[in-house]
Amino acid sequence: MKFLRFNFCHPIKGNACLTPLSTRSLKCHNIKIDSKNSNLIEIPINEFEEGKWKVVLEWEYEGKAFSHHKEFEIKKTRDINY
Questions:
Q1: N-term to C-term CA, the chain
Q2: By 3-state DSSP, what share of the chain in percent is helix, strand and coil, each rounded to 5?
């Protein structure tokens, strides 16, 4: 399984919005995120189509609002049978 992984300096709980950049669709796929007691967020991306994407993470910590923006690319691996 493929994941986007983010490691923060504190636990986070909020939302992730994944938007494809390689199509004309501006549909945002919303995912709830919660690192629980760790600082690691893993967002599964196996079900998303190949291409360029943007993820926006939004959360609050100690009464302050934060966001993190990142562009990434999904490349599907091809199984080769001999």
A1: 23
A2: 0, 55, 45
At 44, which CATH number? 2.60.40
Q: Is residue 80 part of a domain?
A: no
Range of the domain at 26: 3-74
For residue 78, is pLDDT > 80? no
- pLDDT over threshold 80, residue 67: yes
> How many Cα atoms sit within 13 Å of 6 on the Cβ side?
23
**38-59 pLDDT, tens digit each:** 899 999 998 898 999 999 999 9
- 2 CB-near residues (< 8 Å, 6+ apart): 44, 45, 46, 74
Q: What is the reported pTM?
A: 0.84
Lateral strand order in the sheet of 64-74: 29-34, 13-20, 51-61, 64-74
